[in-house]
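pinging the channel bc i need a second pair of eyes. not urgent but kinda urgent?? the chain im working w is below, pasted from the shared doc
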Amino acid sequence: MSQREQFRTRLGFILTTAGSAIGLGAIWKFPYVAGQNGGGAFFFIFIFFTFVLALPLMMAEFAIGRTAGADAVTSFKKIAPGTKWYGIGILGMVTTFILLSFYSVIGGWIITYLGKIFTGELIGLQSEEYALLFQKTIENPWLSLSLQFIFILMTIIVVGHGIQNGIERASKIMMPALAILFLILVIRSVTLDGAVKGMAFLFQPDFSKLTSKAVLDAMGQSFFTLSIGVSVMITYSSYLPKTTNLPRSALSVVSMNLLVIILSGLSIFPAVFSFGLDPDAGPVLLFNVLPTIFSQLPFGMFFFAAFLIVFFFAALTSAFSMLEIIVSVLSKGHLDKRKKYAWMIGIAIFIFGIPSALSYGVLSDVTVFGKSFFDLADYAVSNVLMPLGSLLIAIFVSWKMEKSLLFDELKRGSKLKRGAFQAWYYILRYVAPVLIVIVMLDVLGVWRRVF
């Protein structure tokens, strides 16, 4: 007999779901993507996509998951029996499998740098030496693979213990700790000389710098940071009791995610501008630029260690959700099978991620479509698979699910007004699909060829 767990509390659900969203997308990827796309203008376009696309899509995933009370594949089978719509859940499994395969590589880098701080290896280096150290670190195949495996191992152990005793318990510890450490970092960063330039870079938009690529990146980032389009939210909401307020929960998760993104920007950009460094350093921003900054501050390595711990907690809580999607589908709610599937899938993800881990070392000269294995996986997930999954979910909920039952599900446990529901439904049915298709045509180059 299947035994399906539930979250102990609404707070536990919100912290866990926010933990899924507040990961590398918010702390690692957003700062460097914003830096590469002009700062403030990108940030405001990102906010637009977050509320117009990501929030309605999150509510759609919540509605699917709690209506069915099942995993990402079974949910679609229950709601639309005898159809192929369950393929959306399979697409989500494939996407999170690929995502965790390169995500775990970055998790390994974080562990490496935490070790280097505590051994004193990062103290007293010059800017060029930090860049060289990072290059040597990611080029070392055995170090990259072993730390990637440790990150995967930690994820396996937590997910194997289930929702209440594993993921929810870990999130309740990590998320408050993340918030406290972040506040300390922000206070230190914004009090530096010249910090106002960094704050202006983030909050003062210059829309003349916007490009079609920046708009595409902003939409992809809104999906990436909220884990939209991969059925994470379907999986987590399936563990919810019917009394939970879904609209309020979705808004809480989005608000927490935006808060962390703002804190992330305030902890990085003021410091970057204060020391006259370049904000568009790319993916290496956190490993090259930040050590240079913190090394020049009193107790700098303490603050850098705090930042890396924040980074690590965020990465782990997101990794839990990625593995959970696949494990929940395979275990079908049987608690005694969770550990076995967590180990099986976790090891498979590690093996699949080996090319990404070696992309900056022994496989640095190997490219596919002009991209390294790491960059290809990142691009496929953020700019193709997540938008595609989001498009299909929007179509499924607004065209396949019965509208009256959908309203009843979202109203249950909340005070949702009919007018607000109608606005959400309209966005999901017409606005979201059109915007997603336009941006996906752009990423494929079709839009530019036509116009």
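so The CA atoms of residues 286 and 435 lie 32 Å apart. and Residues 447-451 have pLDDT under 50 and may be disordered. — does that match what u expected or am i reading it wrong
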